[in-house]
């Protein structure tokens, strides 16, 4: 079972791509298979999917209810906002070009902290194709810088 129900909002153009716009809401009855996917149960958002390749071009997600991370260390509060973008860097290869997050995350009461407010902005650049004969495959190297 997938974590979200999707509704098609329409078609548009984004970052030079013809895309489908979708709205995602948490699927009732979804049971995360592990701790890493637990956060999905408290998020909703919008996705823009390239009409030709069906790759996602952009995702904007918001936390709608408190969700614990790693079970005990921090809780991500409603109002936390994520943005992710990606673009093709080689035929058939799409990689991240932008990530930003604005969050409110109070630490565990055991740590006696009122919480953290975090803003993180990363832009991807400098993709470089790396190939190795021993493995007979190529990977893309990505450099990020914080803004």
Keywords:
147 residues; 0% helix; disordered C terminus; globular; eight-stranded antiparallel β-sheet
Radius of gyration: 18 Å
Please state the average pLDDT score: 76
Total strands: the figure is: 10
Estimate nothing, just give the exact number of structural domains.
Answer: 1
The fraction of residues in strands falls at: over 45%
Distance between the termini: 37 Å
Question: What would you say this structure looks like, in words?
Answer:
With 147 residues, the chain is an all-beta fold. It has one domain. It has no helices and ten strands. The strands form two sheets. The protein has an eight-stranded antiparallel β-sheet with strand order 1-2-3-4-7-8-9-10, with no helix packed on it. Strands 5-6 form a two-stranded antiparallel ribbon. Strand 3 and strand 4 form a beta hairpin. The chain is globular, with a radius of gyration of 18 Å. The termini are far apart. The C terminus is likely disordered.
């Amino acid at each position: 079972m997938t974590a979200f129900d999707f509704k098609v909002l329409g078609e548009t153009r984004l970052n030079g791509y013809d895309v489908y716009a979708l709205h995602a809401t948490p699927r009732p009855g979804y049971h995360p298979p592990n701790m890493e996917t637990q956060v999905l149960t408290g998020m909703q958002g919008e996705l823009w999917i390239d009409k030709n390749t069906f790759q996602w071009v952009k995702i904007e997600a918001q936390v709608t209810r408190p969700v614990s991370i790693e079970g005990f260390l921090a809780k991500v509060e409603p109002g936390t906002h994520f943005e992710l973008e990606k673009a093709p860097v080689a035929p058939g290869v799409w990689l991240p070009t932008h990530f930003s997050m604005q969050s409110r995350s109070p630490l565990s009461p055991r740590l006696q902290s009122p919480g953290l407010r975090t803003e993180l902005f990363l832009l991807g650049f400098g993709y470089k194709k790396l190939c190795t004969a021993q493995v007979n495959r190529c990977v893309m190297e990505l450099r990020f810088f914080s803004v």
